[in-house]
Amino acid sequence: xxxxxxxxxxxxxxxxxxxxxxxxxxxxxxxxxxxxxxxxxxxxxxxxxxxxxxxxxxxxxxxxxxxxxxxxxxxxxxxxxxxxxxxxxxxxxxxxxxxxxxxxxxxxxxxxxxxxxxxxxxxxxxxxxxxxxxxxxxxxxxxxxxxxxxxxxxxxxxxxxxxxxxxxxxxxxxxxxxxxxxxxxxxxxxxxxxxxxxxxxxxxxxxxxxxxxxxxxxxxxxxxxxxxxxxxxxxxxxxxxxxxxxxxxxxxxxxxxxxxxxxxxxxxxxxxxxxxxxxxx
Length: 281
Fold this sequence. Notes:
This protein has one domain: 3-Layer(aba) Sandwich (Rossmann fold), CATH 3.40.50. The chain has an eight-stranded mixed sheet with strand order 5-4-1-6-7-9-8-10, sandwiched between helices. Strands 2-3 form a two-stranded antiparallel ribbon. About 35% of the residues lie in helices and about 20% in strands. The chain starts with 11 loop residues before the first helix and ends with a strand. α7 (about 175-185) links the parallel β6 (about 160-165) and β7 (about 190-200). By secondary structure, it is α/β, with parallel strands linked by helices. The chain has helices at about 10-30, 50-55, 80-85, 100-110, 120-130, 145-150, 175-185, 200-215, 250-265, and strands spanning about 35-40, 45-50, 95-100, 115-120, 140, 160-165, 190-200, 220-225, 240-245, 270-280. α1 (about 10-30) runs parallel beside α4, α1 (about 10-30) runs antiparallel to α9 (about 250-265) and α7 (about 175-185) runs parallel beside α8 (about 200-215).
């Protein structure tokens, strides 16, 4: 309960995660039918990059700060960057606000779509409630994110995305994710799932992948991005997304996006990325 994402908002991991989420929503919007997004660890909704927390670390400067106002970016980043401009009044002036995943999703939703935003931290949950007060398309709940997988799946829309983005404060978070995935898949086998994870040491990540493969889940893609070699387990060296039932072209889209981000987000380098299919049909 001590983790506060305000210190890390807009960093390289947020760029990777939110660019992928925006691409998934773009794919979902190719069909007329409504969709639902369940965000299990939603946070407060948006972040002020000029506030004390973000200014203290300055992590956003090595993330969204390197993309802001830059020309020649791949079109696959278009939906993500459009949301950043939207929350910053169409991109006029300096970059100040960064949308957390619920605000990003809300910007990119259509009038017929719906968001369930779940947050356990008491202060962040209150802020999230205020962020979406009076918004009929957003349901905010203060509860444990893994309990939300039981409470809100399957959604009535039967289409959509479940984003699981825990703070990794506990040592068994990978195990909790494997159990959460199994529970969620039992309830909604057709849903798109995105499980975010940090890369500090590679060993626990590989154990996590092996556990998911052994669970029998089909159509699993792992997308990983590192800003430096993962040799120091005390640092956030990279991040990954485990994607279940991803849209058909998403893997190729992510390869193009991450290849460009390798050039922009190295710290100082060399950055690297991979998008692999862990399990097929």
